[in-house]
Amino acid sequence: MTPKHTVDLLILGMGAAAELAAIYAYDANPKLNILIATKALKGKGGCSRMVQGGFNVVLDSSDSHEKHFMDTLKGGQYINDQDLALTLVEQATPTVKELETISGCFFDRRDDGHIHQKAFAGQSFDRTVHKGDLTGIEIISRTTEQVFKRRIPVLEETRAVELLLDETGTVVTGALLFEMRTGKFIVVEAAATLVATGGGPTQYRFHAPGPEKSADGIAMLYRAGAVMRDMEMIQFHPTGLIIPGSVVAGALLEEGLRGAGAHLYNGKGERYMKTYAPEVAERATRDVVSRSAYLEMIAGRACPEGGVHIDAAHLGADFVLKNFPGMAERCAQFNYDLANGRVPVSPSAHFFMGGAAIDKDCYASLGKLFVAGEDAGGVHGANRLGGNGICESCVYGRQAGISIAKFLASKENRTIVKTAPKMAERMAERLAAPLTATSGTSPLENRRDIQETNWLQVGVVRNQKDLQSALDSFTGMSENVAKAKVSGSQAYNMIYNVHLDTLNMIDVSIMAATSALQRDETRGAHTRSDFPQQRDDYGLFNTFLWRGESNLPVFEKREVIFKHKSLETCQQFKK
Amino acid sequence: MQSKQTLRKVKIYRYDPEKGGEGQFSTYDLNIENPAITTILDVLIRIQKEQDPSISFRYACRVNMCGSCGMVINGREGLACKTNVSHLPAGQDITLRPLNHFPVIKDLVVDMGPFFTKYEDALPFFEPKMKHDEPYIIKADDPKRVDIGMATDCIACGCCVSSCTMVNNHEGYAGPAALNRAFTLLADERDALFVPRLTRALESCYNCRTEFNCTEVCPKQISGTRSIKYIQRLAVTHLKELKPLEAHPAEELPPKPPKEEPDTPCCCKAGHAADPSRRSFLKTAAGMVGIASSVGIAGVLGVAAVAPTLASNPKQWVPAGTLKDFPVGGISTIMLSYTRTQGFHSAAVNAPILVRRDSETEFLCFSSSCPHLGCSVAWDPLSARFKCACHGGAFDKDGNVLAGPPPRGLDRLPWKIEDGIIKVEVV
């Protein structure tokens, strides 16, 4: 029925994590037969490319891995996987250097010729490496070229729809892909599979990642039975642009603005961050700033456009235009003047701190399965620092590439395990049903329902009643999604693509709401109005879940292991 | 509230791969209340949601960072997410079609494959000079980095290639995006491939006709033209390092015949060869017949190589159609079919001509044969130009050269009206 490929390494996604994994696996063994499958055009999809601010890394002799590590734990409110966070900060240094020396990136320089590092929120040192204010373009353009140079084949506009498993259900044997242009399914079997599709919590009305994202990797991993963690932790970026009626709404104004000293004002013209975080005000971490803005908004102190105002103009128009040209241009396109005026912004769904549970070599809980980047969880704990996102994608992409090459160096590992009989066929049949359905629900409406429910009930500030109600709604929505109908031809059918998105969005919505109900406190990105305090005597656990027998999530709380830094050290750490 | 002011007509090119053919435009009426903050991408998403779920287009980031939504918007390349409705003249219909020079997959979605094939011509990837553990120390005001500037911000959207009149017609021409990347690497002191890259880029970059189309349309404000000129300048300073260029295979073959006009020479050359430079426009006593002539230096430039000399062929009047076939203010391409007889030799001729009607009684007729190498020229209503697809020649509505290699304007054909039928004089 379906065309079939057999490869050594199947890489799902083509952002920073996927590309660096491909590059490092290839460089370790050029004979590996690697295949990349991406939902978008080559190197054009995903969030790495959309990175604005930059990449946190220790380069300066007056900075240290210790400081970056502590900033990351403090930012994550202590529930990070400490092994992962330590690897992040330690490996960030060689990773960023190799981006320059191997891939040819060129980051902005200081006057003395060394790499320039700018200020971001929540950090004890100005350590964010960047290229202007549109850093992702530089990283992804250069790494994509390196993938081309190595002649690693890429299936573009070919999204992964499900992971394939062997008969025991414990070994990943590859993936079922869907080629958008022809509307055909493709089976790829692989000796190792890396899931690096990137997250993108677009299941909210207001979201920062491009609308093409739909948490595909996280949802596929869950459906395949991988152990997931921290799924309640969804970051809202505090400064998403408000643009009524436009798909651009929710796109970000980068964190460097607050790092450089931009102010936030509510509708009454007050700098409300001075109340919520007297010491650091706008330079507080994203969880705090987003929560504060949301609380101002629901207290009736929103600006006329519905959110709050960011003011960078007081830094001087010349400074803003010189340091944030991309942001100024983005604002100008919608008649906002960042250099001279205030711009309306709102918290915007931005990032999954949660994802598949992995170790520092990117091994996940199923055989032959590796996960890197936003699809993995644990690095950031309850909140991610600005600049640690692209850092995670690059560091763990590199880790995955090196570790998979090692894994495949063993002859035993470098073999294809048989997929359970008829598994791919049955999946393809089920997935194609909406194309032949005579009646059913509309994928666009399903998506809107999911986004509205999440925004209102599983959003910036949550409570038990709303979460429960959302979970109930999701059950109905899940049925609606399964009953979708898509008209038109198979070739480049965008509505069918939205249908595939909603299958994933509903699963991550259920995971997030389920996990959120398990955490009766406020911590990092997870704010509960019914439990407004962080409770360190209660909340030092991680939420783990996986798909159980009856397709419902099985849940387990596990204590945080303070392996490298004790709780006391974390609590006492001051920037 | 819908009102006349906010209602816009949106014409979208449609192509269904299952049906094939040439595709057609579908027209939608859309109420756009706030054109200043409505992007073309918003327009497409709304039409898809509210009126026609079957339209296909491509986008990803929606903030000018991925380069997935390049298309031709009212005749000009741009990103759908970066072009607001208010950037287009108010009251003008919104016309969206796919990028030029790329195979269409469906509707506005093109296959970017040819873009990346050309891109690879320039060796568009960094190759470190030596293994280096530490990033190079390069000052922020290093002249070469200043030269490179933001040119590395290219997002490979294909707009420049679509706008370029040369890249699609020269196998050996890598085009603006690839050469821009070549430039940024040639100016990068860390890169090891200077000589091979410069050799390739030079082989390619003289095909640029300096029309600035790429510069004009680039959504990231990168000047492809500047990048190409930079490479050309490097040739002067690095002459000794370069190996002599081998001839491009195309150069060793005889020139190809014109694409669409086998044996169909330009009609009006005959009889006017003695009048090479004068552009006269005479009217008969009745004011009905216009005679134009201009031949120029075509023979010198090689037209003679592809078109037989027809100086001795007899002229004849051939009907082009009835008056009602030609709307006033319109420009039409008409295929003339007639028999040319000379002595015992007779040949069937099918020659397209261009007819412009300005008023009830005023016409202008042009040979559609490009004065460069004889390819067919067609009227492009979006850019309001006659365009030659072969080498990018462009002419204004009077047939004067605007761009590209043509040595002179379009040849005009004498015409007259008899009994409601317009006739043109051809050989």
Question: Can you give keywords for this protein?
Answer:
heterodimer; A: 575 residues; alpha/beta; FAD/NAD(P)-binding domain; Flavocytochrome C3, Chain A, domain 1; Methane Monooxygenase Hydroxylase, Chain G, domain 1; 3 domains; seven-stranded mixed beta sheet; five-stranded mixed beta sheet; B: 427 residues; alpha+beta; Ubiquitin-like (UB roll); Fumarate Reductase Iron-sulfur Protein, Chain B, domain 2; Rieske Iron-sulfur Protein; four-stranded antiparallel beta sheet; 20 strands; 24% strand; globular
Description:
- The complex is a heterodimer of chains A (575) and B (427).
- In chain A, 36% of the residues lie in helices and 18% in strands.
- Chain A is an alpha/beta fold.
- In chain A, the strands form five sheets. In chain A, strands 1, 2, 6, 7, 8, 9 and 16 form a seven-stranded mixed beta sheet that branches.
- In chain A, helix 1 runs parallel beside helix 4 (135-149), helix 3 (82-101) packs across helix 11 and helix 5 (216-224) crosses helix 15 (494-518).
- The radius of gyration of chain A is 22 Å and the shape is globular.
- The relative contact order of chain A is 0.17.
- The longest helix of chain B is centred in the middle third of the chain and has 14 residues, at 224-237.
- Chain B has helices at residues 40-50, 113-120, 143-148, 159-163, 176-186, 194-205, 213-217, 224-237, 249-252, 298-301, 303-306, and strands at residues 7-14, 24-31, 70-73, 76-79, 94-97, 104-106, 109-110, 281-283, 290-292, 316-322, 331-342, 345-357, 363-367, 377-380, 385-388, 394-395, 401-403, 412-413, 415-418, 421-426.
- Chain B has three domains: 7-110, Ubiquitin-like (UB roll) (Roll), CATH 3.10.20.30; 113-249, Fumarate Reductase Iron-sulfur Protein, Chain B, domain 2, CATH 1.10.1060; 267-426, Rieske Iron-sulfur Protein (3-layer Sandwich), CATH 2.102.10.10.
- In chain B, helix 6 packs across helix 8.
- Chain B is an alpha+beta fold.
- Chain B has a five-stranded mixed beta sheet.
- The interface between A and B is large, with 62 and 68 residues.
